[in-house]
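Rotation project, supervised by the postdoc (A.L.). Task for the rotation student: set up a whole-complex structure prediction and record inputs and outputs verbatim in this book. Inputs entered:
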Amino acid sequence: MIGMILCGGFGKRLKPYTDIMPTPLIEIKDNCTILDKQIFDFASAGVGEVVLLTGYKSEMIEARYGNEYKGVKISYHVEDKPLGTLNALKAGMELAGGEDLVVRNGDVVTDVNIKKMILRHSNSPYPVTMFVTRMRSPYGIVDLGDDKVRSFKEKPLLEYYINGGVYCIKPDARLSNFEGGSLEHTLFPRMAEVGRLGYYMEDGVYWATVDTVRDLEDVRKEYKNKTDKPWGYEKVLISTDKYLTKELFIRSGYQTSFHKHPRKDETMYIIEGVGYIEFHDHKEHFQKNDTIRIEPNVPHTIVAIENTILHEVSTPYLEDTVRIKDYYNVR
Amino acid sequence: MKAFILCGGRGERLKPLTDSLPKPMVNVGGKPILEHQLELLHNHGIRKAVLLVGWYGEKIEAYFGKGEKLGMRIEYSYEDPNNRLGTAGPIKAARDKIEGPFIVMNGDIISNMNISAIVAFHMGLECWGTISMINMPSPYGIIDLEGSRIMQFREKPVLPYKMNAGLYVLEPDVVDFLPDVGSIETDVFPKLASMEKLYGFDSTGIYWSDVGTHKDLQKVDQDILSGKFKL
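Outputs recorded:
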């Protein structure tokens, strides 16, 4: 499986940022670009080789990532003039030499479970699998009872699915049969028409496109207190000198390192999900609304069977982790 | 009836057009957005307007004056562009200009809303406010799923959810609920709704576009040229 990222665009609606850099190099938090996050996602999913399909200001991207980034082998296909995403992908496919691809739009920031998506794709009869996710309304919605306004819903999730901007493609997709500009307007609709387009669905995970300056502001807000981990993310909700509260998101099928805290005494409150905490000699299963206390110096790992969100309330030691075992190549 | 039009916004997403011009003065189809709105009001027999201005508000007053050219009577209420009052505050600040039930409009919307019908609907009810609503135009393509595969893509369809179309008819009583600074959409309407004093009028089917971004502006411009939108 080879990763591929479409990052050749001009990013016109992200001016003035894109006057001096290509969209993928825009930072979503200090020292973390959109592309850093995307390559990290690949590494976390076990994809060790990534081709960047570049164009606009490619030299800046090459300068940052070189031949290797976070243990992921990086190569490039540079388009001198933009011929659309379908052509970029065709060129990339040739470079991949008959391997399956997992392709991403260069402007999507998401916590989707790429490992699970790849698994779904390899067990699927379709040559192309698209990540689909429920659409969040960009507008407030009016809830009516007869003619009376009952309530307002501020930007709710709707019962409609949209393209999440991640695709898995088998070599037998025969891209050479398709002509035209963008994937969205050529390959995908045609594939759907002939019944050859599968999907991987994941709801309730963070998903955003960085298409406009306003989008960028929203993503930066999300990342203000958020740190990506190979297994999901960690957000510091409250940190005082008396106590600490974090939100952890652990992707289905992932687990935190096996670790202990010399001083930190913590209680996990499960907001959502199913999984277990594994100790030296036993497991403690959890589901929504469970609470589990972990006393100092007790080694443990949190394993998510389904996507899990939990709040960790503890004594206030932010840096108090002794890792005993890591399960992923990246940190 | 008087119409109060919110014209104070900074128009961030229409820079650099709005660097020294208020958004309602941005030209679309050969005239300012606001002129389209005033003509719509005039067509529905509304001859009195209060323009709630801020950012470069004097340019609005210089253009429309007292409204003679449009056959209207126009007044102005100024907010300090450095101390913005939101969408509720400017109405409260102009409360001495309220004479009875009144219309409120967002100053960045191009539409052919049937204002007479909305007013008539409102007047027949025991309520404090009526919101004009339309079904939501999806900004994304929608995917139809069937079994394990994707059946088709629908390019930016209209969805069966109601959204606020940016025009209201309100009773003078509502003024007591307006904060000095705050949003009418999120601070005031939910309160009125919970008191069962707020109604919705379905305007679905009309031409409607907000003009918030350059892309919107381009689209509306084309729609006016092609005759898709006209009053």
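Student's summary: The two ends of chain A are 21 Å apart (CA to CA).
Supervisor addendum: The mean pLDDT of chain A is 93.
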